[in-house]
Specification:
337 residues, alpha/beta, TIM Barrel, 6-stranded parallel β-sheet, 3-stranded antiparallel β-sheet, binds flavin-adenine dinucleotide
Length: 337
């Protein structure tokens, strides 16, 4: 916060000066909490009071997205800003799955079935559209089914500033040609903002790789629309109906092993890891550390009490590996009288 916040505030003040909206993009799940902390502080910056140009991106594939939105809507109301919220599905799905498995986390931060991300996106959209005084919803998607669902969900009484769509420069043009433009020309008369990356080749390489992964994935809408073996009915299936057909409801993907069961085929459990980006986990860890290093007092020399620490085996916390005496300045100075 000490390093990032002053830079972010300066950028936001510049953006305000030029009347340009500023959005905090969404990255990996373990960065969400710090991004939210930054957003909260920004919302209460006196130099930004009354400005409606602060924006934040929420990823619907995160299982907590729906609740993150409650917090953001509340923040908007508390700080008296109309916040821009760009709703995306999320661009780091593969990495989130692999990181949770490598780190041996209890569960994934994201859904494991695409249909659940699609349903979450619609539920989040409904929540955003339901708080028009607090939120300017920005729906960033290249999926025609998702777009059409939002168009109908938002109703016929569109007014300027109710919401907008967003697409990436060079993508979704065919789709948005049907959206932007007058109803007399057979279009939907809804605005679309184009997100265009700016920067050097080096800084944009990661962005490009993400787009390649996104468009190459079998489950991606953009990939499927180019595949003639996928028929239209399949492409526009209502995700809510598809999700309701799963038993039990919300069933995770059976081909994606839970982090703890990664080695089930080898009949062993994955080593348990710690999610160090989770504040609750950090608090319980610090409490556990106090217990793990258990101080004892022992008469080490004549009348001097030395503090001994019991060192436990980190893999089997019941096993005492040894005892470690701690000396103080007096012992270091050789004063054991
Ligand atoms: P669809 O094909 O309908 O959805 C694909 C998405 O579904 C995947 O990206 C993934 O999120 C999800 N998915 C795929 N398989 C699974 C599965 N097995 N289980 C669960 N979910 C699955 N992304 C960011 O992370 N941060 C940003 O700041 C960001 N900014 C963006 C700005 C704009 C203007 C746009 C258009 C996109 C942005 N994205 C961002 C990318 C976005 O998150 C999606 O990756 C992309 O738009 C594809 O989603 P879709 O609705 O267009 O397509």
């Amino acid at each position: 916060m000490g390093e990032l916040y002053p830079r972010l505030l300066k950028l936001a003040e510049l953006a305000r000066q030029y009347d340009i909206g500023l959005n905090i993009d969404a990255e990996e799940a373990d960065r969400l909490e710090i991004s939210l902390d930054l957003l909260e502080q920004l919302c209460f910056a006196p130099s930004l009071a009354g400005w409606n140009g602060i924006g934040f991106v929420v990823q619907a594939y995160q299982r907590r997205a729906f609740f993150v939105l409650d917090w953001i809507i509340d923040l908007a109301r508390r700080s008296k800003h109309r916040l821009m919220v760009r709703l995306v599905k999320g661009a780091y799905w593969d990495s989130e799955i692999k990181r949770a498995q490598v780190d041996g986390l209890e569960d994934f931060p994201v859904f494991t079935r695409k249909v659940h991300t699609d349903v979450s996106y619609l539920a989040c959209a409904r929540k955003l559209l339901g708080a028009p005084e607090a939120i300017f919803p920005q729906f960033a998607t290249h999926n025609a089914q998702t777009l059409a669902s939002i168009y109908h969900m938002a109703g016929n009484n569109y007014y300027r500033g109710q919401y907008e769509f967003q697409c990436l420069h060079g993508m979704g043009e065919g789709l948005y040609e049907e959206v932007v433009g007058d109803t007399t020309a057979g279009k939907l008369a809804r605005p679309c903002r184009i997100y265009a990356p700016v920067g050097t080749h080096e800084t944009l390489l990661a962005y490009l790789v993400r787009r390649l992964l996104e468009n190459g994935a079998n489950s991606s809408f953009v990939h499927q629309i180019g595949d003639e073996s996928v028929d239209i009915a399949q492409l526009v299936t209502d995700p809510v109906t598809a999700a309701q057909a799963l038993e039990p409801l919300g069933r995770p993907h059976e081909r994606i092993p839970q982090p703890t069961h990664l080695y089930a085929a080898q009949a062993r459990r994955n080593s348990a890891g710690l999610d160090l980006s989770n504040e609750h986990r950090l608090a319980s860890l610090s409490a556990a550390l106090v217990v793990a290093v258990d101080p004892l007092f022992a008469a080490a020399a004549d009348r001097v009490l030395l503090m001994l620490y019991r060192v436990l085996d980190p893999a089997r916390s019941q096993v005492v590996l040894g005892e470690l005496p701690m000396v103080g300045p007096a012992e270091v100075a050789g004063d054991l009288s």
